[in-house]
Batch of 4 targets.
Target 1
Amino acid sequence: MYLSLFFTFFRIGILTFGGGYTVLPLLQKETVEKKQWISQLEVIDYYAVGQCLPGMIGVNAAILIGYKVKGRGGSVAAAAGFAMPSLLIILAIASLIQNIAGLPVVQSAFAGIRVAVCALVVNAIYTMAQKAIINPITAVLALAVFIAAVWLQVSPVPLVIAAAAAGLILSMREGKLGRKTQAAPNGGDKDTDEESQAGEEQ
Amino acid sequence: MSRYLLLCIEFAKISIFAIGGGLASLPFLYSLSDRYAWFSHGDLADMVAVSESTPGPIGINMATYVGYTVAGVLGGVLATVSYIIPSILIGVIVARFLEKFKASPYVEAVFYGIRPAVCGLIGAAAYKIMSISLLDLDAYRISGSASLTGLFRLPAILMFGVMTVMNHKLKWHPVVYIAIAAVIGVLLKF
């Protein structure tokens, strides 16, 4: 069973390209349709919870599914299987690139590639922002974090902690704690002021 | 402190604080680059490109690549393992009270703040990649503040604009854009 978990997630790891958002359809195909370890609903739940846990979405989902199938050992087997393809492929490619990195052609190619990376990252942010920036307060929060990271050189860890605290405080003020659903944007000026303070605290 | 130990600690930290998958670890890796002279911002942009265009989730690919760059094969293995272990510990605990966790308004409240912050953080990382790939700060400094034309890499900026729109509209696989960009880079001698 551990082996089966390992190799199933090894397959999912190989077939994943790019970000964690590409993992869900693969998880559904491999763990629900093929292996029938969990139900369609469960896999969506695990994926959703995986997004709310520290670390990578795909790894978290693998761990939760592994745990469901075979307890602690199962979660270790699933996570190890999921990470193994990256480890093997990247180590091989990285050592290859290191050997040719000095060539002018390779340097020109990478200079071009960096421009494409800019475009990909900008679009990734756009996709995230549609879910994350839902009212004026969240927009101010994102901007405050951006400024703190770029010009004030604040490192990401304190910013994430401050943002989590800000989320709790804001939800409390908006009366959302105690109720599950997220209220419509109300963006009061008072809240906005407090928000920029929370961002600048660092 | 030995490099290996530092790598383990830093990647365990990233695992705990980089929330939201995909590129969420990028701002933390920039912060690593600033604090230790292990690799440059430019190296990091190249690692993103390789990680996007090879099999495997991008977060793990980046961890392995950074670890390898810093301390060889063992470094790659240690960084990857350290990146995953905190997730296993947290996942095993959360798996026991999954229903409660899922329905908790506190979790939603925390993410109400964290989601936009992650956008801001990745935005800051994007700003750093753009400042090295779309601007030519060295040429600008050498030529003095007189000419602004030396500062902007016009072909790169044009290509960035076109690719951003294409990527938004066409949804081709990232590896396609990366391949096209490599060819353009070689042809135009970027």
Note: Residues 135 and 152 of chain B are 5 Å apart (CA to CA).
Target 2
Amino acid sequence: MTLPPSLEAILTFLQNWWVEIVCGVVIVAVVPLIAGYVVLVERKLMADMQARLGPMRVGPHGLLQPIADALKLLIKEDLIPDNADKLIFWLAPVISMVAAMTSMGAIAFGPTFQVARDINIGILFVIGVSSLGLLGIILGGWASNSHYSIIGAIRSTAQLVSYETAAGLAIVGALLLAGTLRIRAIVDAQQQLGVWFIFLTPVAFFIYLVASIAETNRAPFDLPEAESELVAGYMTEYSGFRWALYFLGEYANMIVVGSVATTLFLGGWLRPFPNVHWLDWLDFLPPLIIAAVGVYCVYRAGKQPAEIQIWFMWAVALTCFAVAVIFAVPLFVTSLKFILPGLHGAFWFLLKVSGYIYLFMWLRFTLPRYRFDQLMHLGWYILIPLAIVNVLAIGVAMILESEFSWNRWFAALLTSLFTLGVAAFLVNLYDKRTAAASAPATAAARDPYAG
Amino acid sequence: MGNALQQEDTTKKNSTLLGADELVINMGPQHPSTHGVLRVKLKLDGERVRATECVIGYLHRGVEKIAEHRTYQQFAPYVDRMDYVAAVSNGLGYCETVEKLLSVEAPPRARVIRTILTELQRIASHLVWLGTHALDIGALTPLFYCFREREEILKIFEKYCGARLTTHAFRIGGLQYEAYDGFEKDVERFCKNFERRIQDYVDLLTGNSIWIGRTRNVGVLSAADCIALGASGPVLRASGVKWDLRKAQPYAAYEQYQFDIPTGTNGDTYDRYMVRMEEMRQSRLICLQAIEKIPEGPILGKVGKVLKPAAGEVYHSIEAPKGILGYYIVSDGTTQPYRVRIRPPSFVNLQALDKMVRGHLVADVVAIIGTLDIVLGEVDR
């Protein structure tokens, strides 16, 4: 039997790419759920820091809240303002979300979990595509035909362009050390050196941390949507599921920048001290941590007021135990040893990303918001010059190490200290500048007695 | 102030930084940080504010007119609805004014209890200000801490008179309710805790460089401007004018207690923040001094069931949390006032908005509205 050539071509395509397609579908299906639960975690953490409980009504401890939220947003009236540019209004949130999800495709969540094949421009691809999300924000703000929206869109354009530069330069620091853009190779380089890049270039990590908060529009850099000034910034006119798409894009973006930071600076899926063999017992940590969560659930189950909550806690506990067993099996069964790096790698990777996102949230609950001019000054006067100096310093350190055979640690320490000195100088300069120019630009003379 | 936009039109046409059109945006009356139903028309050059115009009156209920058709006692609950964040202070001002009109004095015990409750109310009002001000500037968490402490104060109010927000705690001539058992203990416990709690806000905000950047040199108001515009309360004191009616014209029982009047130097938002923070500490000290010795005796002075003041007029003002709160009452000898005129601090302080906002960025507008500490119920009456 012969197939028509077109069908055969499709079959060949599927044969070659089925893993990627399945992974892509999984990402599209799972990321919204994860984003929803990141929102829940954020609300719970915020509640914890603010002496309240957070969502408690839908499901035990509000665990079904994201699903209820999604449902509510889906059945909301689909509202498009009369004066909006309808096509662009419709397209903008889709662009934002698609960009975030596509960039997630190139991220390796473990030595074996990756949607796109290990493309040779991995990091560049991730940064490039996730920056496209900005287009969605600008278009959305423009198409809404609302003053608040346009101000939000302009703010976010300026902000993202500035901070993308700083983030890019910070990433260059790590890339110099790794010598490659390939995501798996970057992690492998950290394994070979036996050290996470955060310890060699702490300044670069710090710059990336600040810049990535600004890139994802999170507090204290959430000016594009500053709810107390611009109502909701570029999202002001959006409601229902279009709004949810923006929201989804934002949280997916958080996961992306967290993953990039983890890959570049925090050793990706490597456990702490991956090459130190007397610390191999650290491999037992993942199952132990998961089992500990299960034990805690059992402990809490006894204190739940309603029977259904007790059952629920037991169910969570048993799931935790089951997962812990799955994580523990390859440690003991030699024939299954080959799944160890993948399984535990994913655990460590997600743990690091979670830590990074937790830091984001913590900052959001603690800090007031920057003003627009202060934000620009911070970006252009401090972060970008510092990032450039840092790139140069890393280059110098690498030459000192390779050409003059200096100790790597000594070179890194010396250059880091130098960069920190530059940072102190820049901050000092910035303080003087703001002190000089902080008075309002056009303080109109006005006679208060004039009435 | 109403003509500000028109004046700007003729003088500064098409002179924006980039030669673009000026942008007029409408902040409010439904906006997250105009503290109620204030509407501010902003004329923007990019993000810089060229001129503002306040539109008020969305919450106008004609409180002063209502007074003309109520007896003196009947009107007392209405004043609670003006500055609903500091109802006790409003009530104190009204009751003292009518007492002045009647030429009666509240007994010492009543005056001390009034002082305690009013100072607690000042702390509560400042806590609401601090939480919302911080929220406007983007700090989410202080709001909840502030409301946690305010809750303790409201619990004391509730135990005292049954109401939490619009308390109607005082009566003309003194008090209706005796302080409940354990009143002193509750106040003392609150004051003891509050000392530690206020440190939380200091840790979160005072030294925070973003907070300082957002508030220092923002909305500067000189002492001369303050006096010319009639601004009072913390707004005035932050500009360096040491004027507090609790010291200048003591009422209730304030002359018995030791406390400082905090003042600022620059008259900017940061100074107003520092002044209000210090005022909370001072109020706490007043409460602690007052509960040490609450005199025994009656709580209600000699006033009749039917109040018929002699024809005449009276003006009395107190230092409410937001500034000078004055009542001007004209009596025609009947049971109902002929005219009541109220001088609300928020309304007068709001006049400074345009002066403070010009030349600043949009983000500063919300910071300045926050720092003025207005309550629209009081502005519109």
Note: Chain A is about 70% helix and 0% strand.
Target 3
Amino acid sequence: MAEFDPMEQFKLVPVFGHFGQQFHFSQANLFMIVAGALILLLLRVGMSPKAVVPGRLQALAEISYQGVMSLAVGSIGPEGKRYFPLVFALFFFILFGNVLGLLPYSFTYTSHIAVTFALAMLVFILITVVAIVIHGRHFFSYFLPDGTPWILAPLIVLIEIVSYLSRPISLSIRLCANMLAGHVMVDVFAYFVILMGGAGAIGVFAALMPMGINVVMIGFELLVAFLQAYVFATLTCVYLHDAVHLH
Amino acid sequence: MDEKRDESSFDQRLNDARERQRLNDPAEVAAAAVPAGDQATQSAWGLGARIGVELASALVVGVVIGLALDRWLHTTPIFLVIFFLVGAAAGMLNVWRLTSPRKPPVEKKN
């Protein structure tokens, strides 16, 4: 048996032969496009009947729309409607990335820090720009809470700035680490199944245990996939709330 | 005459809609913005994981800033030491913000 490497599943490989090599078009890009297309398809096809009493797909599309809308409005406030398209896009891009990654032979682009960090930086730059546009120079008072003793001010400002800068890092690491850890776990337990299965008659029975664990793990991963997308969207909303209202 | 009536009725309806969406009164706009959803996903495990990530990420930012400043100013350990501590403090602050109940948005006079 070849060397076992649970990280191998995250390796980027060019797809579509020559074309992929020419344009560095990897599975990550492919699955991003697939995810985007599926989201558009869900909304387009789901909403095409325009029925008053929705069918299944239409109900799904409507629920996803209303769910994200209530999240945005609930945590940002009535102005949240302005940022709804962004939150919706982020939530579904991450959700589809996570869930598609659970299918066999697929690839989880959200397990790459490059992808999640880019998304987090997008959010970070956006909240900073929004805060500066809305509050102007007043934005910088964010780093100096009310009632700070002046002798502590330099220290507090420093700490607040570092705390602010840590937002994109924590946002991206959380998503990436969750996806990475889940997939590595499933992979490791799957390897146990093969190892034990190769150990004769008793091994086949012993292999049932990691197999059972993997069944549970996949269900758990589905939960994590949804939860992490939700957490990302929620934190985006919380940061936007801070940007719009400053404290 | 008829047109005028239509216009005013449109204004009326627009105003009603804004009233319903609570966009007319800035104080109410702010008051409605109590962050929900923050508590919704909070299981003990999730909270623990989030705390770990918050601590680590602030520390990472502090160390990176310290290393960069040292490299730039050729003062090797000084800024690293300072910003390591600042990063640790910022991590604590993040955790404090995460675990302390969010105060309802107070109206600030600005």
Note: Residues 33-41, 106-110 of chain B have pLDDT under 50 and may be disordered.
Target 4
Amino acid sequence: MTLHTLTLADLALGLERRDFSSVELTQHFLDRIARYDSAANGGLNSFITVTPERALAQAVAADAARSNGTAGLLSGIPLAQKDIFCTQGVKTTCGSKMLDSFISPYNAEVISRCDAAGLVMLGKTNMDEFAMGSSNETSYYGSVKNPWDVTRVPGGSSGGSAAAVAARLAPAASGTDTGGSIRQPAALCNLTGLKPSYGRISRWGMIAFASSLDQAGPMTQTAEDAALLLQVMAGHDAKDSTSIDHPVPDYRASLNDSLQGLRVGLPKQFFGDGLNADTAALIHAAIKEIEKLGATVVEVDLPNSGLSVPAYYVIAPAECSSNLSRFDGVRFGHRCENPKDLEDLYKRSRAEGFGAEVRRRIMIGTYALSAGYYDAYYLQAQRVRRLIKQDFDIAFQHCDVILGPTAPETAFALGAKQEDPIAMYLQDIYTIATNLAGLPGMSIPAGFVSGLPVGLQLIGPYWSESKLLNVAHRYQQVTDWHRQLPTAFA
Amino acid sequence: MALTTDQVARIAHLARLQLPSDENLRVTESLNNILGLIDQLQAANTQGIEPMAHPLDATQPLRVDRVTELNQRDAYQSIAPAVQDGCYLVPRVVE
């Protein structure tokens, strides 16, 4: 059986032709999860919760819909959901001890839309606690192994989703990206990952980390699959007041558009000293390939991009300190034993429920917002945020898409940066600016350094998801990096 | 702007996080490393630049003031750590 090597587009065709049923397909992936994922047996640990009963019930329903002619394009195709999306009746942890007992009473909009499309949820994937991390090592449920080298991290925070798809334990997965959490793990695990424009996908029921930066998106094997999954996820939702009512195009319609005359911008700031030389060589080779498809290259300037990491580590913690104040041990989530008074209940429940990185960011944010420091930190960071956005506005007067590396290096060893938050933060040095500016960004496979995947990043103007998918798809028509599988999971 | 251990204890209190005194020094050091990174912002010239809260400078949409939510108290309280008679239980606040 090679069902697991098929893309979403292939699977849709196979289901339509009755080559296999959704129940067969779903069981195949559940079997692979059972075989490869158990942490107790040295597996990947990419899932926090597997939901076989829910999955098989959805598969039966999808097969029935197929027989009576009511199935949609993706009906019956399995996928994995990041454990940040509230799922009714299913444990939803956000990778935290705080929510270890949390059975969500409602569905995130992303879950509702995937359910409505007939997609079959295999389970909930591992992630850095509250999406704060770049290696998946801050998860209360343990780190996740990179299928390309199980001694290395899969990236984060959507590390479970990335590892699950890379090992083909799921044909696709959802992720979320606040500072690079879809794109960096996609790069480290040889996937196609898309962070759409801010406001494109509803954040309703997506547990908030930094509300002005968080955005959900697809993590898939190909750009075509990303287009298919984005089509399901995207669109206005009145329940999320930051969701934007902007038309959703047919993302597959423009995949094959010609790249003749495409202007590609290369920011010199993305090719400086911090970039690993072997990674840089592959990125330059990928850009040459895109030039061969008809694109021309121009140098662009993002003079303030060096300030994106510092600005982010004010804005994201500030928003997190506010968002995470809801976890108080009163209405849901972890509560400490025998609180002596209300303050003790709050303080111990939160200190016990949150891990070290989450506590660190809450404290940074609390400080940045506190009286006397608000102007110097928070407002200054927001001013720098505007400078960063203005840099992009100017750059996109000279180019249609910006290309560069997704991450400064390939997957690093488990534990290598765990004691050094700053080194970990710098993993997102090329991805954070797009979140600050609200722009869509994408990572696609661009080759291997010593057997480890490298990701090419594409950044476009607001609402340019179709263009990014188009460039990625055309590149994937002339390369086969995205088709490579880690041999242990083939 | 390096933090002192006293300031860190104060921040932990504001954030309602218990911080054992034997951890304070380590946490202070770690926060100061991050503040060292953040302090690069002070060098940026932001004269005349408006703070940016939203990439599209969008404002909150308004809707008609009408009840749209169903009462789901029982469902929500079923996952609470402690409830009684439809109320959430916490330690006594007023003696």
Note: The mean pLDDT of chain B is 93.
